[in-house]
# Entry
Amino acid sequence: MKTIAVLTGDIVSSRSKLANEWQPVLTRILNQYGKEPTDWEIFRGDSFQIRVAPEHALNVAIHIKAGMKQVPPLDVRIAVGVGSGEHTANKITSSTGSAFILSGECFDALKKQTMGIATGSKKLDEVLNLMLSLAALTIDNWSPTVAEVVKMAIEHPAMNQEGIASKMGKSQSSISEALKRGGYDAVMRMEHFYRKQIGSV
# Structure
């Protein structure tokens, strides 16, 4: 049975903004990883679910986070569930499997934390969620400027700082400063660690 990752999330403070101020940003990101509604869906106005390959799940979560943090005071809560996708329906919200169950349970368990992971391995979950809670001290405080640069860096992983600066019409030093303030290198080290560990689940 194929192992998949399911991300379940909702937009924090969504009522403070009109949907057309943030929904196109979210839709553009989700479209980069699949098709609506088989791979992703926005439902109940400000909730969403997306299915991706397990190794990409944390990168996708950070990407969505960077997108939403560009529209203050919005934020996003995301739970990643890694497991099987037993039944694939025409709509992702009608699909079933342990990845969906784990993602839903993890999301319901999110309290003040805005990101969580459930893989079915208690030991691995403990390590990954501790890392996420530490990373959140930085990620949850990204300014719109930092979030915009982080989003660009995620979308263009092969591009160096000069390339990102040119694309955004900013100086290389301002890009460097934004990535440093956003703890980008440390966040990406965490993402690489997750990617390595998830291969052993």
User: Anything to note?
Assistant: The helical segments are 19-31, 57-68, 98-109, 122-139, 144-155, 161-168, 172-181, 184-198. Residues 163 and 172 are 8 Å apart (CA to CA).
